[in-house]
Amino acid sequence: TRFGHGVRAIEDPALVRDLAEQGVTLEVCPGSNVALGLYPDWLSHPIARLADAGCRVTVSTDDPPFFDTTLSREYDRLADAFGWGEPDFARLNHWALDAALCDAATRDRLQRDLQLRVERTAFQVKNKPVEGVGLGITDPDFTSTGFTLSGSTSYTIPLGKTGWNLTPTAGFAW
Q: Which of 25, 97, 147, 152 lies at a CB distance of 3.0 to 4.6 Å from 2, suitable for a disulfide?
């Protein structure tokens, strides 16, 4: 089940709980909500609070020409406001695909494509492969700010606004 918009659900904690428990997806258009004055700024928008409460939210542009936006611009503004990175946007995109109005075969193919992109991004830094990563690496530890790959050498890869940055904990060289 999915509902268009639905951000004002945040005003009713019981409703938020029900939406989360039932797995209802809310199609959210933060840029238009801010432009129309529903919320005074991006930081005041409830998308992060809804997601933190367990609601499945997606990001949409509403009317891109009218609001002078793109999905990339929406993501940039959400990253600026909430410090979101690649794992956060991957999660939103997985939720969007789960709620997509398409046949199961298309949904499955898109989910696989998204997962491959996420995995590929996890092993690249600014479009360069991370040397030594990929062999003996198991169970990446993802957090809201980055992830750690453990193997013969551990790498902590924090998320940056424009892509992955790399901070090795041992033995890394470009």
A: 25
- Name, in order, each residue with C-beta under 8 angstroms of 120's C-beta and a sequence gap of 6 or more: none
Helix 104-122 / helix 86-99 crossing angle, nearest 10 deg? 170
Mean pLDDT of 138-152: 41
- Does residue 163 contact residue 126 with C-beta atoms inside 8 Å? yes
- CB-based burial of residue 132 (10 Å sphere; 0-12 exposed, 13-18 middle, 19+ buried)? middle
pTM: 0.65
| Contact indicator for 172, 129 with CB cutoff of 8 Å | no
**Do residues 30 and 19 lie in contact, with contact meaning Cβ atoms separated by under 8 Å?**
no
Categorize the per-residue pLDDT at 137 as very low, low, confident or very high, splitting at 50, 70 and 90: very low
C-alpha 67/C-alpha 60 separation (Å) is: 12
